[in-house]
Amino acid sequence: MHGPVMLDVVGTELTAIDIALLRHPATGGVILFSRNFSSREQLYRLISQIHELRSPPLLVAVDQEGGRVQRFRDDFTGLPAPARILPHCKGDLGQARRTAHELGWLMAAELRSAGVDFSFAPVLDLGLGVSEVIGDRAFGATPEQVATLGQAWMLGAREAGMISVGKHFPGHGAVRADSHLELPVDERPLHEILHNDVRPFRRLIASGLEAIMPAHVIYRQCDPELAGFSTFWLQQILRGELHFNGVIFSDDLSMQAAAEEGGYPQRARAAIKAGCDLVLVCNNPDAAAEVLETLQDHHDPVSMARCVRLHGRPALSWDHLRETNRWHNAVRLATDINEAPMDDLDL
């Protein structure tokens, strides 16, 4: 069993500081960024080195949604932004569902061939034209569109041996502020959020969604705390009403919105107390070290048992993957969507 902290590393190879942090008993996984990638071969070596440090191996994750949020690009297929799928299919939700399924499979198959356990995807926020930080990361504007395409993406990824992480619960699409930079506040009543934004999460949970990341947003009429630090959202609604029994990740504790909770140790403790299983600390090694020390004695067997299920299942090697017709067809599909005119998108 490992600890409740997921952190990042400096570059394309592990430094002595990286290794010390990764060997800390409170570390449970690593999130990789573009700076950690120079080639597929280098990435495979880096992940192998991370896996060799601990037994069982640490989890390795990345943000590989498609569009503007895709950390690994060279040597990987350029995935279209989720918002491009439905317009490319001329609004045909059935065709779009099949397309999302194959793109989810493609994303997961390529990452698994390099040793990545999972991507923080799919985005299940509604594309309401309000939030610029969501924008074309959303599959659609309606709960039915987002639920249908998000579920298809998840099932495609599952076929390739990868779990999915739905984000940003209970929904980030109706606030304009970017939680990376400021504190977003959603003033809508609970019944409206449950009827609209939560519906995609409810659908995917019923289909076995393995993990969820809450939003760094305050829903003022529901609870005064940020969702990721809220027992109301994480325990009463997510665990209680929606019967979610998977892993809950905090969003990055380094984001500006999280500063409402105090220093890094306070943020980490608040997230764990509210119900998060794993907390993310990115782009700040000193803060990561603080959080590791704060949580070094934290031990929750139920939480860690959930996390064991996040490891990727056996997958095809890159060479074998490229020999399959399915990979070639999926790459051609992604290319066609990327090269299609943007006229139908209003983002």
User: Strand order within the widest sheet?
Assistant: 6-3-2-1-12
| Secondary structure category | alpha/beta
Total number of strands: 12
**In angstroms, what separates the terminal alpha carbons?**
43 Å
**SSE ordering:** EHEHEEEHHEHEEHHEEHEHEHHHH
Question: At CATH's second level, what is the architecture?
Answer: Alpha-Beta Barrel
CATH topology: TIM Barrel
Mean pLDDT across all residues, rounded? 94
**Helicity level:** 25-40%
CATH homologous superfamily caption? Glycoside hydrolase, family 3, N-terminal domain
What coarse outline follows from CA principal-axis ratios? Answer: globular
Largest sheet: 5 strands, parallel
Bin the strand percentage.
5-15%
Tally of separate domains: 1
By DSSP (H or I, 4+ residues per run), the number of helices equals 13
| Cα Rg | 19 Å
List the uncertain runs.
none
- In CATH's first tier, which class applies? Alpha Beta
In terms of quaternary structure, what is this?
single chain
Short characterization:
This protein is an alpha/beta fold and about 350 residues long. It is built from 13 helices and twelve strands.
Structure description:
The chain is α/β, with parallel strands linked by helices. It has a single domain (23-339), classed as Glycoside hydrolase, family 3, N-terminal domain (TIM Barrel, Alpha-Beta Barrel). It contains 13 helices and twelve strands. The protein has helices at residues 16-22, 40-53, 85-88, 93-114, 143-159, 190-195, 198-206, 231-241, 264-274, 285-294, 301-308, 318-321, 325-339, and strands spanning 5-7, 27-32, 59-62, 64-66, 69-70, 118-119, 165-169, 185-186, 211-214, 218-219, 247-248, 279-281. Strands 6-3-2-1-12 form a five-stranded parallel beta sheet. Strands 7-9-11 form a three-stranded parallel beta sheet. The radius of gyration is 19 Å and the shape is globular.
